[in-house]
Design goal:
The structure is a single chain. The chain contains 3 helices and 3 strands, in the order βααββα. The chain has 85 residues and is of the alpha+beta class. The protein has one domain. It has a 3-stranded antiparallel beta sheet with strand order 1-2-3. Helix 1 runs antiparallel to helix 2. The longest helix is centred in the N-terminal third of the chain and has 19 residues.
């Protein structure tokens, strides 16, 4: 079985727009102006997220192969199914 892991990192503007006011306000209330800046930096860092998918060629007993893409648990279930006769 051949497999390949793809990891994709993205930036969420929606998450940033929600996080900035909340974290800057909390930072301002706790630490003053410096806390507001810290809240801004945390909001920016927290807006990045990643998605990991796996591409695999699953061989069956009949000799055929199936190219699939999905999560690790989905691929493992398909491999167990392909191993049964």
């Amino acid at each position: 079985m051949n497999s390949e892991v793809n990891k994709e990192t993205k930036f969420s503007v929606f998450s940033l727009l929600i996080g900035i006011p909340m974290l800057m306000l909390v930072g301002w209330l706790v630490f003053g102006p410096v806390g507001s800046l810290i809240g801004l930096l945390i909001a920016i860092a927290g807006s990045f997220y990643s998605k990991k998918t796996i591409k695999a060629d699953v061989p069956f007993h009949s000799g055929e192969k199936l190219a699939v893409e999905g999560w690790n648990s989905d691929i493992q279930s398909l491999v167990r199914f392909a191993a049964t006769k």
